[in-house]
Amino acid sequence: MDSTPPPSSASPFDMVSSALGQYMPVHGPPAAAGSAGPQGDDAARPDVSDNPPPADQEQILGAVDLDRDLRITRWNLDAPVFAGVEAVAGSPFVGLLPPSDVPTVTRRLRQVLETGEPHVARVQRLRRGDGSELVVSMSILAAAAPHEGLTVSLIAMARRLHLYAAETAIGTSLDIGETAQSLAESLLAWGDVTAVDLDFAVWTGEAVTEQPQGRLRLRRAALVPDRAWPDGYVTPGDDLPGDASRLLSQAIRRDDAAQAIVIPDREAIERVLGSPRLVRALTPGDQAAAVACIPLVLDGKPPVVLGVAEVWRRADRPFADSELFDLQELVVRTSHHVDLARQHQREHTQVLALQRRLLPRSAGDTIQTASVYQPATPDSAGVGGDWVNSFPLPDGRTALVVGDVVGHGLGAAATMGQLSMEARALLSAGLTPDEVLEHLDETVSLLDDVESGLAAGYSALGSTCCIAVYDPVSHHVEVASAGHLPPVLVPPDGPAGPVAIRPHPGLGAEFALREPYDVHAFCAPPGSLLALYTDGLVEDPALSIDEGIDRLTDAVSSVHPWDALEQAAQRVVSAVAPTRRRDDVTLLIARMIGYRKEDTTTWRLAARGDAAARARTLVSELLGRWGTREHIQDSVLLVVDELVANAVRFAGGPITVRLIRTGHGLLCEVGDTGNGRPRLGPGGLLDDAGRGLHVVHGLTTRWGVRWTDTGKVVWASFER
User: Fold this and answer.
1) Which of these, 450, 452, 453, 425, lies nearest to 440 by C-alpha position?
2) Minimum mean pLDDT among 116-120, 233-237, 301-305, 545-549: which range?
3) In the Cβ-directed half-sphere of 641, how many Cα atoms lie within 13 Å?
């Protein structure tokens, strides 16, 4: 019977060793009974004599297994190319590395241990016993069960393979900092210290067409290896001194083809830089005696210089012509990756700027809000269409809106901004949450209409939105949702849980699936917390959605009444958000405050001819008790008289008059059962129709209409 384990059960170490050639032995300590040790591997392999290796076959692959303490447990480094790389059972793996690389590689090893995500194809140096170095492509994999620890695969790098692997590694990220770091790490195969300095416009993602006259402004984007540098040396994030930028600009901004520039020894470096301050800023240490500067250039007429890469060496390792050719070839190959990262940085900046504009700023005096937005990944590819907003409505209520637009990047950001602004405008105009969602549904359908020319290759169908409007007088909240997860309500006394909203398809659903949007109303007494969120907060592969919402409910319930809401929102996200996020995380928490009972009064009047006079009397008495200034009282009484008279004349009863004392003024509301919309017409001196609204318009700071289930409410605000 064949004793070779099936591929699904093979560990990464076994698979890498198999790729080495089954005739190669595996070294390591004796295996425990039942474990996959060297003896088991030998039993599974044919005898060496049965499969002699071809004489001209070059073996370049090796593997090392590590335990959770990053110590070597077994290894397969018998290929001749690894001669002098001395692996010893029980010794730290980092003992195979140059000392300057130990912190960086240790961090990567522990990261794979913690997350399980592999770290693939990074250029790395190994230290031989004679002090020389071997350049390899190193991948770090989590060991397969039942083993614990890591498997490190090593591919010895021939020149062309090195260039290919380096270019592949550099192109794996669209983050400008990570791209520069990958380039610096790849260049380390040719030197002891490498740095990448980028034009400031490239670093910030600005447009780069052709370089302006004068010097480049350079900022250090990457530096390898990680270690403590001498005082004054330029490290990542720092701008190069002006004199240094001028010198490098003169060297790399040339009309002919880009060439590597070499300063061969320490004496020449000090002579070129000209001052001790520049030597300290640009020279990584006393042993650095030679440097090669290679410009990062985009082809064009004239060529566009993105920055410069620098490779430093000790005095006993001068640069050979072939090495300079390789350095220049690698930098030329990867310059376009730097430019792609720059373009992505620009898009990332634009998307985040738009999302910051949509974050809540102030929700008024009757409600406290706090929001958290965290993209799934730091690059722009991970910036999605999640958005939240909260804003006071002109009639004294507060709107809370959360949405999730399909997709990522600028297409999603543009749609997100359009839907957010449209929702705000419609809510401010007095439309109910369900009516606003109907308009947003039409907008999404229009954006996806190819014939309209607005789609531009992006579809927002299936986007979701949830709208809540809080009335601080009645302490009622109206919620409508289009395919969005339900808000979580935590009252001051009573059970907490998700609001019971009837499910509805997302925005832009097919006509056959569309149904009228429901409005769910509920009471949120002062002190209540309402949490609106996107699915990225509660979606965890290990849990169901209901379990995720329950966890959110528990976390919001733990917020104490006197906790600062901003810090509380951050704690909720930390407690609930999945560790390995696949989507953006968005949370909006609102704490209901409302108006005090003594700051608001409501009267119900019959729709009779004396209703206006009765309203003036009641309002006048209340304003007197509130100590309102006389000229404000006169304005309020005139407006109340006009609005009540219009309600009696054009609508029906009963008529509701409500007066609210706000933090900065007064708010007057007159409700009736009519469905006509008061409009401010041109109205001449002899035209009686609509003349009363001109009086209202002239005496108030703002007025408007909102619709209710039983009619409408005309409101007017006054500054005290």
Assistant:
1) 425
2) 301-305
3) 13
Sheet holding 384-392, edge to edge: 384-392, 398-408, 464-471, 476-482, 520-523
Q: In this predicted model, what pLDDT tens digit does every residue of 658-710 receive, in sequence order? A: 998 887 788 899 988 887 777 666 654 334 455 677 778 888 888 888 888 78
Residues 6+ apart with CB under 8 A from 27: 38, 74, 75, 76, 77, 78, 87, 89
Separation CA 198–CA 219 (nearest Å): 5
E strands, 179-239, in order: 193-199, 218-224
**What pLDDT is stored for residue 56 in this prediction?**
40
Count of alpha carbons within 13 angstroms of residue 616, beta-carbon side: 12
What one-character-per-residue DSSP string does 74-129 give?
EEE--SGGGTT----TTSBGGGGS-GGGHHHHHHHHHHHHHH---EEEEEEEEE-T
Using alpha carbons only, give the angle 444, 506, 382 rounded to the nearest 5 degrees. Answer: 80
CA distance 395 to 392: 8
Tell me how far apart the alpha carbons of residues 487 and 385 are, in angstroms, rounded to a whole number.
19
In contact, 299 and 321? CB cutoff 8 Å: no
Tell me the sheet residues that pair with 313: 290
User: CA 696, 701, 705 angle in degrees (round to 5)?
Assistant: 60
Average pLDDT, the chain: 78
Whether 531 and 572 have beta carbons less than 8 Å apart is answered as yes
Whose structure tokens read 């809370």?
400
Task: Using DSSP, state whether 659 is helix, strand or coil.
Answer: strand
Residue type, 112: V
Query: From CA 189, how far away is CA 125, in angstroms rounded?
Result: 7
Banded pLDDT at 34 (limits 50, 70, 90): very low
Q: Which residues have CB under 8 Å from 1's CB, separation 6+?
A: none
Q: CA–CA separation, 212 vs 656, rounded Å?
A: 68
At 658, give phi and psi (nearest 5°).
Answer: -130, 135
Considering only CA atoms, which of 97, 109, 3 is closest in space to residue 46? 3
For residue 495, report the phi and psi dihedrals to the nearest 5 degrees: -70, 140
Whether 520 has a pLDDT exceeding 90, the answer reads yes
Q: How many CA atoms lie within 13 A of 321 on its CB side?
A: 0
Q: List b or e across 142-158, with b for residues whose CB sees 16 or more CB atoms inside 10 angstroms.
A: bbbeebebbbbbbbbbe
Is residue 368 over pLDDT 70? Answer: yes
Report residue 330 as tokens: 């690698």
Please give the DSSP secondary-structure letter assigned to residue 584. Answer: -
Residue 83 in tokens: 């001669």
Q: What is the pLDDT of residues 199-224, one digit of tens each?
A: 877 766 565 555 444 557 788 888 98
Query: Which residues does 569 contact at the CB level (< 8 Å), separation at least 6?
Result: 370, 371, 372, 587, 589
List CB contacts of 386: < 8 A, sequence separation 6 or more: 355, 373, 402, 403, 404, 405, 416, 534, 536, 583, 584, 585, 586
Q: Percentage of the chain surpassing pLDDT 70?
A: 75
Beta strands in 462-565 (DSSP E): 464-471, 476-482, 488-490, 497-498, 520-523, 529-533
